DNA sequence: CGGATTTGACCGGCGC
DNA sequence: GCGCCGGTCAAATCCG
């Protein structure tokens, strides 16, 4: 990305005309010739400074370009490494996350860690016969649910729209809870399209960035995604792009080896509630460009040499 | 009036 | 064994 092409570095300082004015003045008032000679020298010095500034700006632009490339590479490597670590941890200790001083936040039900949902049902084996019947009913379902876990990040522009992630399926909210590590409530959804569908969904705003909704899918749908007509009947704001998003729990879920992290950004969608998979770097690059322009403008205004040249150009134009 | 949502209570796993 | 915490249930409430 060449920022120099984005910024007009010439700034149209009109230094040239100042020199011609000085030459004309020389002819008209010979007594002031020495003063104008000095002025001419100063103008040429300013011109050199301007060239140096342009050169410096080009150099900084090239440096920024290199840094952006390095940052992109680092991000890619980080994501790859992170998924490898997750795979390794889950393969090494599938029942529980690795213990440690920070293990407290990960103290969750086993079913969330992606494997042992039957343990919860087995825990009630010592109770009454009705409980046993319940656990017999619940056990196979839980085993199914914990088969696949996927996680989806959805950025939303409207923080007050609630914990609704349009993904092409029908969900019924059955609970909401405020968790310890996040001030935002977590909503629990079941698939309501088919009562026998074992899929569950948890939606919670990210603690770090509350514009990001984190939805965690557990299990696999035993029915196809809603048709476009069905989606529009249930939610008129749904669009074709939502249909593609609806396949996320299938296409991005992993086996019990670990969760998948998918970054989705709907801020660029025409409608706020649309979900759309977008390549990450593009909006970031635009933001980076804007930031760079602002920083360059800021540094230029702080540069006394530049402001002096600018003042000379303006005064020359006014005198002219 | 029926389905969806809300919300407080309850259950069970887990760490201490 | 106790208390904390996440997950689920179910009655109450809302809404079209």
From TrEMBL:
It is found in: Nucleus. It comes from the Eukaryota. Keywords: Coiled coil, DNA-binding, Nucleus, Transcription, Transcription regulation. This is WRKY domain-containing protein. Residues 36-70 form a coiled coil. Residues 160-226 form the WRKY domain. Its main location: nucleus. It holds the Pfam family WRKY. SMART domains: WRKY. Residues 114-129 have a biased composition (Low complexity). GO terms for molecular function: DNA-binding transcription factor activity; sequence-specific DNA binding. Residues 91-141, 219-260 are annotated as: Disordered. GO terms for cellular component: nucleus. Residues 228-259 have a biased composition (Polar residues). SUPFAM superfamilies: WRKY DNA-binding domain (SSF118290).
């Amino acid at each position: 990305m060449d920022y120099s092409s984005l910024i007009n570095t010439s700034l149209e300082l009109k230094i040239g005309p100042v020199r011609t004015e000085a030459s004309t003045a020389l002819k008209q008032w010979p007594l002031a010739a020495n003063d104008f000679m000095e002025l001419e020298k100063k103008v040429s010095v300013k011109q050199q400074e301007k060239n140096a500034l342009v050169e410096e700006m080009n150099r900084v632009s090239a440096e920024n370009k290199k840094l952006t490339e390095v940052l992109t590479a680092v991000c890619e490597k980080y994501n790859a490494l992170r998924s490898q670590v997750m795979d390794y941890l889950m393969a090494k200790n599938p029942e529980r996350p690795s213990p440690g001083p920070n293990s407290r936040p990960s103290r969750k039900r086993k079913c969330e860690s992606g494997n042992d949902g039957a343990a919860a049902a087995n825990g009630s084996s010592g109770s009454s016969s009705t409980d046993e019947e319940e656990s017999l009913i619940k056990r196979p379902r839980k085993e199914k649910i914990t088969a696949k876990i996927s996680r989806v990040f959805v950025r939303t522009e409207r923080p007050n729209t609630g914990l609704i992630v349009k993904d092409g399926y029908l969900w019924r909210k059955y609970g909401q809870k405020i968790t310890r590590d996040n001030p935002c409530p977590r909503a629990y959804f079941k698939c309501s399209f088919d009562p026998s569908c074992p899929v569950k969904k948890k939606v919670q705003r990210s603690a770090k960035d509350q514009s990001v909704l984190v939805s965690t899918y557990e299990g696999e749908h035993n029915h196809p995604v809603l048709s476009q007509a069905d989606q529009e009947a249930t939610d008129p704001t749904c669009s074709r792009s939502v249909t593609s998003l609806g396949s996320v729990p299938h296409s991005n879920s992993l086996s019990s080896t670990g969760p998948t992290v998918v970054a989705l950004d709907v801020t660029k969608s025409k409608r706020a509630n649309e979900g759309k998979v977008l390549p990450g770097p593009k909006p970031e690059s635009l933001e980076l460009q804007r930031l760079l322009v602002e920083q360059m403008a800021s540094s230029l205004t702080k540069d006394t040499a530049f402001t002096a040249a600018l003042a000379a150009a303006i005064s020359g134009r006014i005198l002219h």
